[in-house]
Amino acid sequence: MTTIRISQYAFELSDPFSEGQVLLVNEANALNALRAENIRNAVGRLISRELEAAGVNRTTAASHDAKLLSVEAHVRVLAEVARYDAEYAFGSKRAYARSTRLETLAREIAKPLALAQIRQLQLMGTDSTNYSAERVEELILETSKREDVLVEARIRLEEELHVASEALESLL
Predict the structure, then answer these.
(1) 11 and 26 fall within a common domain
(2) pLDDT tier for residue 163 given thresholds of 50, 70 and 90
(3) Sign of the C-alpha dihedral computed for residues 62, 65, 67 and 69 taken in this order
(4) What is the C-alpha end-to-end distance of the chain, expressed in Å?
(5) Helices 147-171 and 101-124: crossing angle, nearest 10°?
(6) Are residues 64 and 120 in the same domain?
(7) Of 20, 28, 154, 165, which sits most exposed with the smallest number of CB within 10 A?
């Protein structure tokens, strides 16, 4: 795990690169550090907006006497860090890079549904289409917009927010 700091806030990130992935240990460490710094820079803008909205001067935000973000703002920031951590890819400007957490959850729910639909059609012999990665992504995106998928995504998002709020409140 890598910890990044933005003002007085610390966030834990996963380290997806490791020795043995055709990387030497110093290469893996360098990639993980670069990845963490890129995520830190991206999320730093959100922290700045949240601090400004809370009336905190950015230059004094790191002091021990600085005003803290509200629980709700901190939960939003935690969710954004988790999203960046889960979706980050080097040099990739993916179409959904700025998607909301709800959209991300909907895609996560939609993926196995879309893949099962493809398998079923192919097994039934009614579909002989050779699915490219791009076509599979399109089907996942289409499926993620279904009402049943969005309802499940909203439920999961509410659960995540509840768990994050309880965890944060237990720290205060």
Answers:
(1) yes
(2) confident
(3) positive
(4) 23
(5) 140
(6) no
(7) 20
Residue 22 tokens, joined: 């055709």
Region for 20 from its dihedrals, namely left if φ exceeds 0, alpha if ψ lies in -120 to 50, beta otherwise: left
Are 136 and 115 in contact, with CB atoms under 8 Å apart? yes
Question: Which pLDDT tens digit goes with each residue over 85-127?
Answer: 887 777 654 433 456 788 888 999 999 998 888 888 777 776 6
Number of structural domains, the chain? 2
120-156 per-position pLDDT tens digit: 877 777 666 666 777 788 888 899 999 999 999 999 9
Mean pLDDT of the chain: 78
Which residue, chain included where needed, has tokens 């043995």?
A: 20
Instruction: Return the structure tokens found at 154.
Output: 């909203």
Residues 103 and 151 in one domain: yes
Domain identity same for 79 and 105 = no
Rounded Cα distance between 46 and 37, Å, is 15
Q: What is this structure's pTM?
A: 0.44
Residues with Cβ within 8 Å of residue 6, at least 6 apart in sequence: 40, 43, 44, 47
